[in-house]
Specification:
A hairpin with a 7-residue loop joins strand 3 and strand 4. The N and C termini lie far apart (43 Å). By secondary structure, the protein is mainly beta. It has one domain.
């Protein structure tokens, strides 16, 4: 099972994804989500495995992803702009500075 919803927000939209832990992100069922986020800069806002008794294995992944209209430049994100590949932030989370 997979449920995804989009809500407009400043600079893009928020994509809420609720999926069974058995739904693979490279699988057929997840393709519409991949199509939405595949060509956009994104930032993972939240992701957590939660208890879901109605799901197989009793768990689901709930995540929220910010999908940017345009590259947010200095905000930590996964960047799809080839000219910025050297500044890619990898996992969408701010990098921790080495102290």
């Amino acid at each position: 099972m997979l449920v995804a919803t989009m809500v407009r927000s400043v600079g893009g939209f928020l994509l809420s994804i609720y999926k069974s832990v058995v739904v693979k992100t490279d699988g057929r069922l997840y393709r519409p989500v991949r199509d939405i986020i595949g060509n956009s800069c994104t930032t993972e806002v939240f992701a957590e495995i939660i208890e879901a008794p109605h799901m197989m294995f009793g768990e689901a992944l709930l995540s929220v992803v910010k999908v940017w209209d345009v590259c947010p430049e200095d905000i930590a994100h996964i960047c799809v702009n080839p000219h910025r590949s050297e500044r890619r932030q990898g996992d969408g989370h701010p990098e921790e500075s080495a102290a």
